[in-house]
Amino acid sequence: MANFNYKARNDAGGMESGVLEAADRSAALSQISAMGLFAVSVESPSGEGGPAGSLREGKQRKLFQRGPAKPSLQDLANFTRQLANLLNAGMPLTGALNSMTNLESKGIPPEVSRGLFNEVREGKTLSNAMALYPHSFPDMYLNMVKAGETSGSMVEVLKRLADHYERFAEVRSKVTTALVYPLFVMGLGVVLIFIFMSYILPKFMAIFDGMNVNLPTSTRILQGMSDFFAAYWWAVLIFGVVSSVLIKRYFVTPNGKRRLHGWLLTAPLVSRIARPTYFGQFARTLGALMQNGVPVLTALKITENVVQNVILQGAIAMTREGVTDGKTIAEPLGRSGVFPKLMVDLVHIGEQTGDVPAALDNLADTYDNELNVSLRVVTTLIEPILIVVIAGVVGFMLVGVLQAMFKITSSIGKT
User: Fold this and answer.
1) Three-class DSSP labels, 111-166
2) pLDDT tens digits, residue range 387-405?
3) What's the pTM value of the predicted model, to 2 decimals?
4) Residue spans of alpha helices (H) in 196-216
5) Coil, strand, or helix at residue 9?
6) pLDDT tens, position by position, 39-70
């Protein structure tokens, strides 16, 4: 047992201090909590422990040093849903946040929940407390929580937030799942072709070289490719790695990013997935923000940061400038020349009826349905195309080998 000097704040906000005996610092904190106090600092005479209020900062620094990964969309949805359920059950905000530290919330570290509890207990609003953790809670999240605090409908806002991130997570999962199989087939085909050209084909060519036979054209082409791969396979690998790095660096530059994102919106097949994904993301984000009372200009600015396409970001920025000039959303949205006429018309109808968020929500559902259809069509088309391409390459190599073997067999028969 050891003695701990503590300072704590009572329910009235006053400071209390004293000394208590406990087995360790955690036990001391439990005793302070049992007395109905909120610990500010707990220290042993040897200097162990530290300000309880600084516990969050220390954990935060540790997380920053390790480069913490951002929570996924589903992680945010689960955290938000749990918090909404606790508040809906009648728990006060501090009690709900305290319970969140003990609940399993993948992606949101427990120290973040403890930090939120500490900040709210000290008198900060939830949105201001969450603003201290920008790595966990994006701007959209903070603004919607702030809107919920202003309107007094925190539970409803949190439920909408959870629904919003769950839909986003579902869309991303569908796109990822649809692309996994084609990418796997393409990668496996490239690896098999590389192995065949570097190791298997040279063994056949060594046999053919020992025969005094005029090889077919296809076999001579294969022989040249085989010799090159066998001698310079390392150069091929280096070239591939260097090219990948340079291409990646180029597409990070403003000009490269603009070219890539423009290609995503116009390329055959690819645009059938990219366009409904981006447009649905725009409509759902802007609609959710406006529905929860976030001002239009702020909602457009947040949506501009959420949509990960520089072409659309520029169009949203133009729309925001147009709205600043006193125009409706639909007019500058259509003038940007990027958004489809369906979106502009439905937003215009929403402005006439006075319910733009509902129009945007219907648009988001429309683009989600379009995305589902496009994913089925694109994956149905890509799979046979990949199989035909890989089969054509492999078939050419087999034909080259078989033609040489037939030529050698026939020449042996003649002799």
Assistant:
1) HHHHHHHHHHHCCCCHHHHHCCCCCCCCHHHHHHHHHHHHHCCHHHHHHHHHHHHH
2) 888 888 878 888 887 887 8
3) 0.65
4) 201-209
5) strand
6) 666 776 554 444 344 444 444 444 434 445 67
